[in-house]
Design goal:
With about 180 residues, the protein is an all-alpha fold. The chain has one domain: Four Helix Bundle (Hemerythrin (Met), subunit A). The protein is about 75% helix and about 0% strand.
Length: about 180
């Protein structure tokens, strides 16, 4: 097995691992949602907690589906769209870290009507944060795969700029604006 094949196999396994972790997170989120439903009367704003859980339920589901699609595509070969998709998933996960902080500020880091709910809210926050951190690691997979994509496909030949310019375009291109003033 070549290094390229080993890296692709490792990437497929890593994507499978991320999908498995995502499924575990979905199960946890479902359980948390049930617990919040049972204790909704003890929360000041249960709707905000439901929205947070539902948002991450959708995000994790979409990411799992995309990881599985990319893993299937890698079995056919490495492609730039798959690498771009991995980077986008990691970027989305990084962007949603802020949502975790806002949830902590809005629902956890303040006095609660029933302090017994704080550990559950904290678990929800930690679970989503940890899953986002795991998804952010998809950037490393993309970087490894991109290195092999570059080795598999030679770069296009570099062509020097062959455009011709008239005199005015040349002066505009090479001289700063301050030098072009009239006397």
């Amino acid at each position: 097995m070549t290094d390229t094949n080993a890296d692709v196999v490792a990437a497929i396994e890593h994507l499978g691992l991320r999908s498995g972790e995502g499924l575990s997170t979905l199960e946890l989120l479902r359980g948390y949602r049930e617990q919040i439903e049972a204790g909704a009367a003890t929360l000041e704003n249960p709707r905000a907690v439901f929205e947070y859980i539902d948002f991450f339920n959708e995000l994790v589901t979409r990411t799992i589906n995309e990881c599985e699609r990319i893993a299937a595509g890698l079995r056919q070969g490495v492609s730039q769209p798959d690498i771009d998709a991995l980077r986008q998933l990691a970027s989305n996960a990084a962007a949603e870290q802020r949502r975790c902080l806002m949830f902590r500020d809005k629902c956890i880091n303040r006095p609660l009507p029933d302090e017994r709910m704080r550990p559950l809210l904290n678990e929800i926050s930690v679970t989503t944060r940890d899953q986002l951190t795991a998804f952010r690691e998809l950037t490393a997979i993309a970087a490894k795969l991109e290195g092999h994509l570059g080795a598999a496909t030679p770069p296009p030949p570099q062509e020097e700029e062959k455009r011709s310019f008239d005199r005015r375009a040349l002066f505009t291109k090479f001289l700063p604006k301050t030098d072009r003033g009239t006397p």
